Amino acid sequence: MKKFLIAPSILSADFARLGEDTAKVLEAGGDVVHFDVMDNHYVPNLTIGPLVCQSLHNYLQKAGINAPIDVHLMVKPVDRLIPDFAAAGASYISFHPEASEHLDRTISLIREHGCKAGLVFNPATSLSYLDYVMDKLDVILLMSVNPGFGGQSFIPGTLDKLRQVRKLIDDSGYDIRLEIDGGVNAENIGEIAAAGADMFVAGSAIFNQPDYRTVIDHMRSELAK
Ligand code: DX5
Ligand code: ZN
């Protein structure tokens, strides 16, 4: 099993002081910046794009912080944003298969731009999208809420889906991260890890607390059990 990665979702950060708040969560122990991009078309909410990604990337670089940026695209169409996010400092780019006309092409485009490619599954999206692309993926991201908003509750059925994907990854022998996104907190992170996840997105559970380090330390102690 790979090292566990905690990816604070900046959707719940203070957008008026995004650079500072992101630096603060990384200094408190976050490993990866989860960057949620919503277009009011694929999902019913509107967030941030490549310009903000670039500014944030520059801010972190200047502060000497090298955490990877994990761009979660909840947009349709997908492809035309990929070069922009790659140029804006993204390390990972993940997208929803329903939002792309040509799955294989989109994955290739992400990799050609030097980023790690992830495929995202909504709670009711079939895993059959994995059938012909497992060899080209760096990340499989399971949504444990319906995408569009932070602060929702973890859908328990996702645990079974995680176990299925963990087995698929292990049987395949490919080097793929299994990321979980939605309703993750210090109370449930242990059973989510036991079901097979190794990369954990958490937004409201971290940013709604006054002390980020306390929550992240609590998450890590649950992961160490
Ligand atoms: C939801 C986003 C999530 C969200 C998670 O569509 O993809 O990344 O920020 O927020 P919490 O952890 O609050 O469920
Ligand atoms: Zn997300």
TrEMBL record:
<feature type="active site" description="Proton acceptor">
    <location>
        <position position="36"/>
    </location>
</feature>
<dbReference type="Pfam" id="PF00834">
    <property type="entry name" value="Ribul_P_3_epim"/>
</dbReference>
<dbReference type="InterPro" id="IPR013785">
    <property type="entry name" value="Aldolase_TIM"/>
</dbReference>
<dbReference type="InterPro" id="IPR026019">
    <property type="entry name" value="Ribul_P_3_epim"/>
</dbReference>
<dbReference type="InterPro" id="IPR011060">
    <property type="entry name" value="RibuloseP-bd_barrel"/>
</dbReference>
<feature type="binding site">
    <location>
        <position position="9"/>
    </location>
    <ligand>
        <name>substrate</name>
    </ligand>
</feature>
<feature type="binding site">
    <location>
        <position position="34"/>
    </location>
    <ligand>
        <name>a divalent metal cation</name>
    </ligand>
</feature>
<feature type="active site" description="Proton donor">
    <location>
        <position position="181"/>
    </location>
</feature>
<dbReference type="InterPro" id="IPR000056">
    <property type="entry name" value="Ribul_P_3_epim-like"/>
</dbReference>
<feature type="binding site">
    <location>
        <begin position="181"/>
        <end position="183"/>
    </location>
    <ligand>
        <name>substrate</name>
    </ligand>
</feature>
<keyword id="KW-0413">Isomerase</keyword>
<comment type="function">
    <text>Catalyzes the reversible epimerization of D-ribulose 5-phosphate to D-xylulose 5-phosphate.</text>
</comment>
<feature type="binding site">
    <location>
        <begin position="203"/>
        <end position="204"/>
    </location>
    <ligand>
        <name>substrate</name>
    </ligand>
</feature>
<feature type="binding site">
    <location>
        <position position="181"/>
    </location>
    <ligand>
        <name>a divalent metal cation</name>
    </ligand>
</feature>
<feature type="binding site">
    <location>
        <position position="72"/>
    </location>
    <ligand>
        <name>a divalent metal cation</name>
    </ligand>
</feature>
<comment type="pathway">
    <text>Carbohydrate degradation.</text>
</comment>
<feature type="binding site">
    <location>
        <position position="72"/>
    </location>
    <ligand>
        <name>substrate</name>
    </ligand>
</feature>
<feature type="binding site">
    <location>
        <position position="36"/>
    </location>
    <ligand>
        <name>a divalent metal cation</name>
    </ligand>
</feature>
<keyword id="KW-0119">Carbohydrate metabolism</keyword>
<protein>
    <recommendedName>
        <fullName>Ribulose-phosphate 3-epimerase</fullName>
        <ecNumber>5.1.3.1</ecNumber>
    </recommendedName>
</protein>
<feature type="binding site">
    <location>
        <begin position="148"/>
        <end position="151"/>
    </location>
    <ligand>
        <name>substrate</name>
    </ligand>
</feature>
<comment type="similarity">
    <text>Belongs to the ribulose-phosphate 3-epimerase family.</text>
</comment>
<keyword id="KW-0479">Metal-binding</keyword>
